[in-house]
Structure prediction request, 228 residues.
Amino acid sequence: QFQLVQSGTEVKKPGASVKVSCKTSDDNFVINYITWVRQAPGQGLEWMGWISPNNGPTNYAPKLQGRVSMTTAISTRTAYMELQSLRSDDTAVYHCATGSTVTWFDSWGQGTLVTVSS
Amino acid sequence: QSSLTQPASVSGSPGQSITLSCTGSSSDIGGFDYVSWYQQHPGKAPKVIIYDVTYRPSGVSNRFSGSKSGNTASLTISALQAEDEANYYCSSYTSAHIVLFGGGTKLTVL
Prediction:
């Protein structure tokens, strides 16, 4: 398991964008996958997609396609998730997670609360 | 399918065994051996306790075990302990190359 440290709480207005960062201690950052999962208040987990830092292929959840973008900075072992055109139902805790595959995730960030409110 | 189906809540007494279910379809649980289970305590990040249907990560108690039959996966917790009280989520890889989570089951230890 590896330590994943995420950026802090964000408050945004509807229509704005948010970019959450996730810095890892994983020496194998390049060959593992970074997955993003969100959890609305009192609700369950929702898979958002993944990125491979190695050459950067991505796979996004169909409902977020067009609004979400996942990137990485290999030199700083940091992953980023940007969500555009925010709506109130995007209010959630956003987690990054990592693993050697895209099917399960063994290290998780502490979560970043994003609140969308006018 | 938007999510896998889990019972909203289950309860058990200390020392008992309980089984949590997770129902999907032939496009997810039934089609792949990529079912995982996560334990989440309030205010904490999820923790994987089972992956690839039956495998336990290093450090996870052997009181947790997973299985699958057809389109339904199961998580069994034996010798229930107070610390097991948490929310449990199943997940599965799908034929659409995405991951689906279940809605979660709240386990109460009486």
